[in-house]
Every structure is written in structure tokens, then in C-alpha cells.
Q: What sequence folds into this?
């Protein structure tokens, strides 16, 4: 019996026409391969399901934002109408200032309903990311912001725990499995049926056969994925930018390419199909479950977040202190705001409301360091995850896709920063009026409006380019390794 | 030595000699043990933080200076959801629910600060906690260990030899099953010991904890037992180890990873929930109606008539106290209805997911695990409404004091002793029987899973041919 090396050496040189014959043969074989057609059908079905779920989520967020703004507008118009009627003497003012829209205190603290909205990016239809966990709108006002922290979506928490069936999930988790199922016996099938020696004698090298077989299958899956997603988004009317979609699809294809290389590599070293499938299932588990879990665990252990309970306690403590030091805090506040000189602090009503403003500012200044500690730890966790993302291509791809879809912390941080700026604008408008005791209010159209500023184009470029480079580099390495191994494969 | 013992010994020896199986067992054992240790440490810290915060808030309430009772009602206090003892095994839904709520006048607040909100993108990958590992990774261990148990013997031609020696196929299969079970229990044992130690040394979680722990273990063993016999049955049914492995991996991927996500999407479509924005708009509209001046006037007329006076100033009590309490009481049914409807929506989805557990046992075991750990929606709902009930007690006491002692135009401040008349908030989680009733579909699904897989395996093994 000739050795593998001997047989490989006696193999006839592969020429272009042999390659063409093999390609045609493989194409015909593929069309008759019911198992593969079934897998392709599964991908089609799952991609459609994921698109439906993702598009529903995008529209859900969009409509929730629209409904919130409409409700805000209706309440603002109602307050304005009632306020103008009171000012015109057509309606008697209510007993308490808190329900009087013609009193700046009532209007600013109780009747002004305004929400800061973070509009969903169209790509959230493909990558839900953290967009279902992080609030996407927030009630704001000039008063203390602590009471406005509760803008969570009314999702069943189990849906949040299990995760969304979005296109990212299909790409990251399902696509590799389909490829594994399609290719784990790419070589073993020929070995076990005994066709490999005769194919080899006809000039078909194992490398070319396996590579062609896997690339063909991966190509069909890629075409299905790209076609379904592109057509699906078009039909669903999601206003996604072609450039962003192209990058998302490039990431998906590069990830598929990497798994093709992985399957090739495992097939090249495994003795049989069972062993290959066992190894590939193990690698899938390692890269998709164990490594991300361990990196997350490590990030949480190395940079643990302070307790949110501590945050609440700090807020309460500061409130108590502010209550006891109202006069002192007001003095300091007026010193820091020379534009408010002349405020009559002898007037008990003016003192009360001006001191409230000073107290609120004090509480926020006391809580800010605790919040900063949260933000710093979260950033430290993120940096650690960024450093370790290469340990699993799934982590790198998920991070890149989430950033691209604006569904992660980066865009959320930008949103919160804009909310802070907006609250400062509202305060700059209302506080001087309240502090000076100019309570009559008719400037319903003049207070600043929320205006979301999208992140500049290219803010995610670095991340997705790095991810693409990682995926393509690993793919090239995997294919080179597999080709080298396949040169020494046992033919008989 | 009986035939069974011989088979078992052979099974254990051959699996131990197989480096691949040994590596898988060691990796799973280490993963589980590390997950359990980290979980115990994090859980103890969380429990301590919440307990400390609860104590601090309660003391803050008691230490208030003399002030108007309505100001005190607005000051209120935060209550913190205690970390349930078995949360160290299964954090369940807790990361996706708020940890605290503010009990204040007029308003039933939401729970705020979801831990998941402070997590990065990796939190959307499966978490490495003991429950998750047992529910999703250990079935794979069973597949790796058992896919070739009978199909391998058949492929090597040894199955025929064994049967010709008079070894009953069921006895052979039982030996193999016991061998796999041994490795499974060995993998589980360190993690269980760590968890038990964490429970014993941690804060007292209540008298039900040992029973809940035992039931948690029983249902997980039932679930894993189902997997073990399924692996055996498929291995007996299919001719080649490759066929058995491919089939089992497909089932595992569908059951543990893909179908649960599809099921939650389907549940959200079949039993849709309103967006929070719509829900809040509805709630505010209902509260606005209840605050109508007509209603206030009606109450005022009634009180004036009751005391036989014409002006609120002539009442022997303070009108504002009555008005505040009337307003609170008018809002109670509105809060009950809106929050209740939201939780009913969750419950409907939960029931669907439990029923989906008949096809997807991973969903069923997740439901039972979270329920026993006290990290499911039933426990959260109980806490939310217990907190609300306590808020109402505070309002009643404060408004009653305003009614009796406050007078318009005065700067009334209640003596700090009033704060101590409010009972300390003490939450008792729902009893075990009630909790189990909520997950009856899931428990039934798990029993059925174990029964069907065992029957399938028995039939396949009994008719196994070389």
C-alpha cells in the first residue's frame, strides 16, 4: 500500500480544466445534496425570523419615541393654553403654585413634560445589542434628575436574559453551526466512501477538493444571508444607510470566512467525521460561550462596579446635608452665580426656592463622584474587553456590530452627555427667573428644546476596521494552516 | 461480581483512559467550580450591600428631625430587594429587574437601577453562572461522553459479541448510563459543595432554603437525566457514532440555544406588552381623571356635611389631611390596575414560555430554577406589591397625623416619635407551594421530558441489534 506522502507525490498536476470539472461536479452535487439544501433553508428561515424580530424592535422604539414626543407636545400645549387663559384673566389660577402654568415654579418643576429621546439607529434592526437594556428616552426637567432614572422598556425580563433572536445572533451563533454541519465531513465523506484515491489519481488534490467544497457551501450561505438581509430591510422600509449596511455585511462575511477557515483547519487535522464534529462543537462552545463568559467574568472581577445601593445612599446623604445647610449653600450658590446678584434672600418665599436650587446643585455635585466612579469602572471593563476581544472572534464581531448599530454604551454615553447639557440649558433658562422671584411666566415658546445630535460619521470606523483585520488575518492563517495539513493527508 | 458491575467498571475505566473524555470532564468540573465560587462571592457581597442599604435607609427615616408629616411622606425611604439565598445558584431575572424603589407620597415608583444596565456588550453572551452551565453545558458533556456508548460498540462489532454472551441490552445500557452518570455527578459535586458552603455561611435565607436547594437539585437531575437517556437512546438507535453525534448536537443546539430565543420572540408577539411610553401615558391619564376638581369638590361636600359646617376652616380637623388621603386612596386602584396589568402581561408570556417547555426543556428547567432560587417574576411581583402596601401604610399614618394636628396657616411639625410608628418594612417571599404552583407547567414539562426520553431510550435499547 503506498503511503500518503508517496501518493500525494504521484498525484497528477492539477490543471485549470480539472478544477473546472471539479467545480461543475461540486455544483451539481450541491444541488442534489438535500442535507445542505435543508441547512440553506434553515438559514433562510432563521434570517427572515431574525429580520422580522429586529425590524419590529426598531419600529417599536421608533413609535415609542414618537408617542412620547406627541404626549409631551400635547401636555405642553395644554399647559400653555391654561397659562395664557390665567394670564388673560379668563381662568382663575389654581390654589397651589405647583399646578399653575402661569407660575414659572409650577411650569418648570411640575407641568413641563419633556423627554430627551435617543432615536434608534436603523441597524438596530440587525443588532439589538444593548438597546433593549439601556433606556432610549429619559424624562428631563430643570429640577433634580434623580427622579427621572426610570425609563426602562416594559420587556419581559426573560426575553432580556435569553437575548434577542436578531440577525447578529444568526450570524454569530447559528451561521457557524450551519457551516459546521455543511462541512464537517468535507474530507471524511470521500475518505469513508473510498473515492479519495481515485479523485487524487485524476488530478484532484485533497486541498483543492476540500477548499472548493467548503467555499462553495460558505458562498451559498453568504449569498443567502446578504440577499435576505438586503431585500428584507428594503421591503421593511428601514432607512438604513447603504454604507453602514455594507460594513455590517462585510463583518458578517468576514466572520463566516473565519469559520470556513476553522472548519477547514479542523477537517484537515481530524481523522474522521465524528472527531471533526466533536472538535468543531467544542470550538463553537469555547468561542461563543466559554471565552466570552470568562472575559466578562474577568472584567467584572478585576474592575467591579460600585454598588448602586451606595449610589442611592450617597444621594440621600447629600440631600440630608443640603437640607441642614440651606442658607450656607444658597450663599455659596449666589457667590458662584454673580448674574443673580440682587436676589432678595430676605423674602422667605424667594429664599425657599432659591435655596432649593442651591440644594439640588449641591446634591448633584456630591453624587457626581459616585457616578464618575461607575463610569470609570465601566470604561475600565470596556478597555479590558477591548484588549481581550481577540480571544474570541465572536466578541470582536459583536462589539463591532453593536457599535455600528449604535446599540452599545458608546452611543448611550453620548446620549447621557447631551442630556446633561440639555438640563443645563433648561436650568439656565428657568433658574434665574425662579431665583429672582420672577414667578409670572409666559415664555412658553422660548425655553430650549431637545435636539439630538447624532454621533459624527466615522466614529466607529476604527473598531470595525480592527475587527475586519482580525477576522481576515485569522482566516488567512486558518486557511494556510489547513492547506499545509491537507498536503499530508492520508489518501487511503 | 455482577454483570452490571463489570459493565460499569469497564465503562469507567475506558472513559478515564480516553484522554478526550477526561479533558472534557476536568474542564466542565473546573468551569462549574469557578462559576460557583465567583457566584458565591459576588452574591454574598450583593446581599451585604443591600442589607446595609436597607438598614441605613430605615435609620435615616427614624432620624428625621421634626417636620410636617406630609414632608416626611415625600421624603419617604428606599427599600431594597433582598438578594435571595439561592440567587447564588441562579441569578435568574434579577439582573434585569431594578434593585430598589422609593416609597414616597402620591406615587407608586418603578424599580430602578437594573444591574444589567451597568453591564457591557458581553452581558448579551450567555452568562457563566452555575445554573446556566448546568442547563446548557452539562448536556453537551453528556453527549460527548455518551454518543458512542452503544453506536460505538456496534461500529466496532463488540455489541454483537456482548449480546451473544447473553448480556441483556438493557443491562448493558444501564451500565453505560451509570458510568456517564458517575462522571456527571463528579463534575457537579465540587460546585454543589461550594454552593452549599455559601448557603451555610451566608446570611439566613429562611427556613425554606434547604428544601428549595434540594428541589433545585432534583429538577436539574431530572433534566440532565432526560439528556443522559436521550443520548443513550439515540446511540442505540443510530448505526454509527457519527450519526448519533450529529443528531445529538443538533438537538442540543436547538434546545439550549436557538429555540429558547425564538420562543421568547413568539411569546412577545402572541402576548404583546405595551411600550413603557404608552403605559405611562395611560397611567398619567387615569391619574389625571382621578384628580379632577369635581371629585375633590364631592369629597369636600361630604366631609363638610359630615361635620355640619360650611367651610373647611371651621372643621375640627385639618381638611388637607383628609384630602391627601382621599387622593391616595383614589390612586390605589389605578396603580393596582396599571401595574397589575403589566405583571399580568408578563405572566401570560411566562405561561407561554412554560408551555413551550414541553418542546424546549431548557426553558422549563430555567423556569423552575428561577422560581426555586427566588429570582423569577413571581418573587419580584410579590416584592413590588409588598413595597407598595408598605407605602400605603406610611401615607395613611402621615395623613392621619396631618388630619388630627395640622392647621392651615401654622407651621406644624410632627414630633420625631411619629416616624417610629411606621413599622419597619419586612418582606416575606412567597411560600414554596405558591411558587411551585406558578411553575406547574414547567414542572410537568420536565417530568414529561424525563418520562418520554426514558421510554424512548428503553424502546431503542430493547430492540438494539448488532
A:
Amino acid at each position: 500500500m503506498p503511503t500518503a506522502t508517496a501518493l500525494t507525490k504521484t498525484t497528477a498536476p492539477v490543471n485549470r480544466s480539472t478544477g473546472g470539472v471539479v467545480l461543475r461536479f461540486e455544483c451539481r452535487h450541491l444541488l442534489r445534496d438535500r442535507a445542505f439544501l435543508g441547512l440553506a433553508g434553515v438559514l433562510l428561515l432563521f434570517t427572515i425570523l431574525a429580520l422580522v424580530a429586529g425590524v419590529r424592535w426598531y419600529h417599536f422604539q421608533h413609535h415609542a419615541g414618537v408617542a412620547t414626543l406627541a404626549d409631551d407636545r400635547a401636555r405642553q400645549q395644554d399647559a400653555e393654553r391654561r397659562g395664557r387663559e390665567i394670564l388673560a384673566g379668563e381662568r382663575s389660577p389654581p390654589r397651589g403654585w405647583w399646578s399653575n402654568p402661569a407660575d414659572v415654579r409650577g411650569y418648570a418643576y411640575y407641568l413641563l413634560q419633556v423627554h430627551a429621546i435617543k432615536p434608534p439607529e436603523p441597524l438596530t434592526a440587525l443588532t439589538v445589542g444593548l438597546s433593549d437594556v439601556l433606556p432610549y428616552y429619559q424624562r428631563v426637567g430643570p429640577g433634580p434628575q434623580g427622579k427621572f432614572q426610570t425609563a426602562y422598556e416594559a420587556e419581559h425580563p426573560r426575553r432580556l436574559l435569553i437575548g434577542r433572536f436578531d440577525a447578529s445572533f444568526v450570524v454569530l451563533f447559528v451561521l457557524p453551526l450551519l457551516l459546521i454541519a455543511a462541512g464537517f465531513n468535507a474530507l471524511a465523506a470521500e475518505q469513508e466512501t473510498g473515492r479519495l484515491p481515485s479523485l487524487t489519481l485524476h488530478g484532484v488534490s485533497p486541498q483543492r477538493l476540500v477548499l472548493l467544497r467548503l467555499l462553495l457551501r460558505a458562498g451559498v450561505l453568504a449569498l443567502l444571508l446578504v440577499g435576505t438581509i438586503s431585500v428584507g430591510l428594503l421591503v421593511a422600509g428601514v432607512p438604513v444607510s447603504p454604507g453602514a449596511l455594507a460594513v455590517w455585511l462585510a463583518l458578517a462575511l468576514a466572520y463566516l470566512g473565519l469559520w470556513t477557515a476553522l472548519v477547514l483547519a479542523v477537517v484537515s487535522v481530524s481523522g474522521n467525521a465524528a472527531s471533526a464534529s466533536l472538535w468543531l462543537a467544542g470550538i463553537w462552545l469555547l468561542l461563543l460561550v466559554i471565552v466570552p463568559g470568562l472575559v466578562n467574568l474577568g472584567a467584572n472581577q478585576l474592575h467591579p462596579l460600585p454598588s448602586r445601593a451606595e449610589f442611592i445612599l450617597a444621594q440621600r446623604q447629600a440631600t440630608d446635608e443640603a437640607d441642614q445647610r440651606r442658607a450656607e449653600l444658597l450663599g455659596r450658590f449666589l457667590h458662584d452665580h454673580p448674574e443673580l446678584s440682587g436676589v432678595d434672600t430676605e423674602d422667605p418665599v424667594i429664599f425657599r426656592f432659591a435655596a432649593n436650587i442651591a440644594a439640588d446643585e449641591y446634591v448633584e455635585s456630591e453624587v457626581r463622584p459616585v457616578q464618575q466612579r461607575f463610569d470609570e469602572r465601566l470604561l475600565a471593563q470596556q478597555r479590558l474587553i477591548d484588549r481581550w476581544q481577540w480571544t474570541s472572534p465572536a466578541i470582536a464581531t459583536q462589539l463591532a456590530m453593536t457599535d455600528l448599530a449604535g446599540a452599545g454604551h458608546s452611543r448611550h454615553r453620548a446620549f447621557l452627555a447631551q442630556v446633561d447639557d440639555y438640563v443645563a440649558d433648561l436650568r439656565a433658562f428657568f433658574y434665574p427667573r425662579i431665583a429672582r422671584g420672577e414667578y409670572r411666566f409666559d415664555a412658553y415658546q422660548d425655553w430650549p428644546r431637545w435636539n439630538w445630535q447624532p454621533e459624527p460619521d466615522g466614529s466607529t470606523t476604527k473598531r470595525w476596521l480592527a475587527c475586519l483585520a482580525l477576522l481576515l488575518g485569522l482566516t488567512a492563517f486558518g486557511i494556510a494552516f489547513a492547506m499545509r495539513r491537507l498536503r499530508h493527508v492520508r489518501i487511503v | 461480581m455482577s454483570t452490571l458491575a463489570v459493565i460499569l467498571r469497564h465503562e469507567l475505566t475506558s472513559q478515564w483512559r480516553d484522554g478526550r473524555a477526561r479533558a472534557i470532564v476536568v474542564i466542565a468540573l473546573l468551569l462549574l467550580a469557578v462559576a460557583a465560587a465567583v457566584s458565591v462571592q459576588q452574591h454574598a457581597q450583593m446581599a451585604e450591600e443591600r442589607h446595609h442599604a436597607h438598614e441605613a435607609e430605615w435609620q435615616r427615616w427614624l432620624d428625621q428631625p421634626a417636620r410636617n408629616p406630609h414632608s416626611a411622606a415625600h421624603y419617604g425611604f428606599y427599600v431594597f430587594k433582598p438578594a435571595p439565598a439561592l440567587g447564588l445558584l441562579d441569578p435568574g431575572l434579577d439582573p434585569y429587574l431594578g434593585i430598589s424603589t422609593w416609597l414616597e407620597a402620591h406615587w407608586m415608583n418603578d424599580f430602578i437601577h437594573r444591574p444589567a444596565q451597568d453591564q457591557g456588550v458581553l452581558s448579551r453572551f450567555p452568562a457563566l453562572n452555575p445554573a446556566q452551565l448546568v442547563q446548557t453545558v452539562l448536556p453537551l458533556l453528556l453527549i460527548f461522553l455518551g454518543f458512542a456508548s452503544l453506536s460505538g460498540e456496534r461500529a466496532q462489532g463488540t455489541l454483537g459479541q456482548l449480546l451473544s454472551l447473553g448480556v441483556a441490552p438493557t443491562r448493558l445500557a444501564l451500565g453505560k448510563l451509570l458510568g456517564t452518570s458517575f462522571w456527571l455527578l463528579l463534575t457537579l459535586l465540587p460546585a454543589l459543595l461550594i454552593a452549599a458552603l455559601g448557603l451555610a455561611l451566608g446570611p439566613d435565607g429562611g427556613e425554606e432554603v434547604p428544601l428549595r436547594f434540594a428541589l433545585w437539585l432534583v429538577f436539574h437531575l431530572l433534566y440532565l437525566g432526560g439528556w443522559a437517556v436521550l443520548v443513550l437512546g439515540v446511540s442505540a438507535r443510530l448505526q454509527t457514532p457519527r450519526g448519533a453525534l450529529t443528531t445529538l448536537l443538533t438537538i442540543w443546539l436547538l434546545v439550549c440555544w436557538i429555540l429558547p430565543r425564538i420562543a421568547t420572540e413568539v411569546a412577545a408577539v402572541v402576548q404583546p406588552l405595551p411600550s413603557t411610553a404608552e403605559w405611562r401615558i395611560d397611567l398619567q391619564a387615569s391619574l389625571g381623571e382621578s384628580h379632577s376638581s369635581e371629585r375633590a369638590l364631592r369629597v369636600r361636600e361630604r366631609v363638610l356635611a359630615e361635620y355640619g359646617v360650611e367651610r373647611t376652616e371651621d372643621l375640627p380637623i385639618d381638611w388637607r389631611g383628609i384630602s391627601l388621603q382621599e387622593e391616595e386612596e383614589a390612586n390605589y386602584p389605578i396603580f393596582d390596575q396599571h401595574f397589575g396589568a403589566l405583571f399580568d402581561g408578563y405572566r401570560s408570556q411566562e405561561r407561554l414560555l412554560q408551555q413551550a417547555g414541553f418542546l424546549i426543556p431548557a426553558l422549563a428547567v430555567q423556569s423552575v430554577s428561577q422560581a426555586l432560587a427566588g429570582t423569577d417574576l413571581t418573587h419580584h411581583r410579590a416584592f413590588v406589591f409588598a413595597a407598595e402596601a408598605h407605602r400605603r401604610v406610611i401615607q395613611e399614618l402621615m395623613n392621619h397625623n396631618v388630619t388630627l394636628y395640622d392647621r392651615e396657616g401654622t407651621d406644624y411639625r410632627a414630633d420625631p416619635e411619629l416616624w417610629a410608628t411606621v413599622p419597619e418594612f419586612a418582606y416575606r417571599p412567597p411560600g414554596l407551594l405558591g411558587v411551585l404552583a406558578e411553575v406547574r407547567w414547567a414542572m410537568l414539562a420536565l417530568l414529561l421530558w424525563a418520562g418520554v426520553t426514558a421510554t424512548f431510550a428503553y424502546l431503542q435499547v430493547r430492540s438494539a441489534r448488532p
